[in-house]
Amino acid sequence: MRLLIVEDEKRLARSLAAGLTAEGFAVDVVHDGLEGLYRAGEIPYDLVVLDIMLPGMNGYRVCAALRAAGNDVPILMLTAKDGEYDEAEGLDTGADDYLTKPFSYLVLVARIRALIRRRSAGRPSPVLTAGELSIDTATRRVHCGEGEVALTAKEFAVLEQLAVRAGEVVGKPEILEHVWDFAYEGDPNIVEVYVSALRRKLGAGRIETVRGAGYRLVSR
C-alpha cells in the first residue's frame, strides 16, 4: 500500500512517515498543497493524508480538485482546527474522514486501515494465491501449505507486488516504486536483498529471476 502525506509541519510529517513505514506502507511526503495535488494526480495512491492549512493551496481545495478530476483515492484530512463547520466543509469537498490535531497515532493508523478496507469492500478477495502459497493482504499474513511464514513489513510488501502479478515478470523499478517512496536514493539492489530473504523463507524455487527483466512468482 502506498500513501501520500501532505503536511507542512515537517517534524510531524517525518514522524508520521517513519511510523507508517514501520507499519509496512510505502510513504511519500510533500509539504505544499499544489505539490500534493500534482503527486496525487500522477501516482495511484491507496490513501492520502491531507492537512487543511497548507501553503500553495489549502487542503479543502486540493480535495475538491481531486474529486472534480474523478480521483476517488481515500482522503483523511488533518487539521488543528476543531468545530463542526470545519468538519462539514472537509466532508463536503469529498474527504472520507477527518482527524483533529493533536491526535493519537494509533487512532490515525486505525482510521487509515479502516478507509482502505472500506475501499476494498466489494472487490475481489484480498487473499492472493500462487500454488500452495497464500497471501492475505488484509491481515498481512502468509501461509505456505499448512504453516504460517513470518515476514517483515518490507518482505511482505515485496511479496505482495509479485503476488498480484503471479506468473508474470515484475521489474525491479516497479517493485521499488511501490514498496519504497519517491525520495528513496539508496542502492536499487536493495530489491535483490529482499528477494533473497523471501527465497530463504518460502523456498529457493518460489521466485525466479528473469535476467534483465525482473522476477516472477511461480506456482508450485
Keywords:
5-stranded parallel beta sheet; about 220 residues; elongated; about 20% strand
Any overview of this molecule?
The strands form 3 sheets. A 5-stranded parallel sheet has the order 2-1-3-4-5, sandwiched between helices. Strands 6-7-8-9 form a 4-stranded antiparallel sheet, covered by helices on one side. It has a 3-stranded antiparallel sheet with strand order 10-12-11. With 220 residues, it is an alpha/beta fold. α3 links the parallel β3 (47-51) and β4. The protein has 8 helices and 12 strands. The longest helix has 16 residues, at 105-120.
CA radius of gyration = 19 Å
Main structural class: alpha/beta
Count of distinct strands = 12
Principal-axis shape = elongated
Helix content: 40-55%
Sheet with the most strands? 5 strands, parallel
Distance between the termini: 26 Å
Number of helices: 8
Residues in β-strands, percent: 15-25%
The pLDDT mean sits at 85
Order of helical and strand elements? EHEHEHEHEHEEEEHEHHEE
Identify the strand order in the major beta sheet.
2-1-3-4-5
- Give unreliable regions as ranges: none
Brief overview:
Helices cover 41% and strands 22% of the residues. The chain is of the alpha/beta class.
